[in-house]
Amino acid sequence: MNTTEQIHKTARELQPLYATSGEDLPDRPLWEHPEIKPVIEAQRVLSNILFPRKYNPEPDDFKNFFIQQLENAATLLIQETQKALPFRWKGAADLHEKRVPIDDIEATAKKIVNQFIATLPSVRTLLVEDVKAAYNGDPAALSYAEVKLAYPGLKAITSHRIAHELYQLDVPLIPRMMSEATHSLTGIDIHPGATIGKGFFIDHGTGVVIGETCHIGNNVKLYQGVTLGAKSFPLDAHGRPIKHIQRHPTVEDNVIVYSNSTILGGDTVIGKGTVVAGNVFVMESTPANSLVPRAEGGVVVRTRGIPTQGAGI
User: Among 276, 102, 68, 71, which residue's Cα sits nearest to residue 172?
Assistant: First the structure.
């Protein structure tokens, strides 16, 4: 068989493997999925809006600059959201939930994008606090400009705050596409479902993982290699992981987690003001104002200077 014959044979064999219906693939042709390039371009434009001096000379007229950029972002997002919305009821993970199809996808996409645009002032307010947290939390940061231009943690949280708003509006696929694009650039993996308060700072950043159902309070600081993950995945009657349940920990206000520590479980709460030392493995809650270091026999939780054995932690 020559090369041409082999190509035709392989093409015939591939064709039935790309079905457009059934549980494994949505009932839509592959090329009607949201496209990566316009989604990432929308993300870039939105970042440009949130930090205009980072990407452009200072605009002479901020209002006109914002109008132009918002129109660009809206056009891209409406186009890609229309492609994404059918995955609310056609995605394999949602087939068993019997979601109701949307009658007017175009109108729904426009409504969602309008609602998203309305959140941007509050997103900008949060990001200002994130910049301050990085500057105040790192003696190596000599200016706000250095944080905005050079810190991967700020890039990651900027992307997350954009993607999270779209996630909250129940936009399929697009928030995850944004977060994974940022993951590839920064080494920081934040699921768009995670809820993160103001003044959030990831120092150094590489290897940080924050799961979908994490709740993180205000003024929290994480170092590189920290994982906020799940203990296990409860299965439904068909052996599939149950969706939409709390699987990841809650980290309350003013917590610091040092490098390479792992905190697991949806019922795990790290109390406010706690410091978790490096290379610690935690699967139980801690009181407020605790110190959680490693010890020769395991992890010890110290609260207000009084050592207590942290059984199972």
Answer: 102
pTM above 0.90, yes or no: no
Are the beta carbons of 275 and 253 closer than 8 angstroms? no
Mean pLDDT by 10 residues, the chain (313 residues): 94 77 48 88 96 72 90 98 90 64 94 97 97 97 95 98 98 97 97 98 97 98 98 79 88 98 97 97 96 76 54 34
Q: Alpha-carbon torsion 177, 179, 180, 184, what sign?
A: positive
Q: Residue 229: count other Cβ atoms within 10 Å of its Cβ.
A: 17
SS3 at position 1: coil
Query: For domain 207-313, which CATH number applies: 3.40.50.880, 2.160.10.10, 2.10.109.10, 3.40.50.720?
Result: 2.160.10.10
State whether the Cα torsion 162-168-169-172 is positive or negative.
positive
22-188: what fold? Answer: serine acetyltransferase, domain 1 (1.10.3130)
Three-point CA angle 56, 60, 63, nearest 5°? 90
In tens, the pLDDT along 3-43 reads 999 999 999 998 877 655 544 454 445 557 899 999 999 99
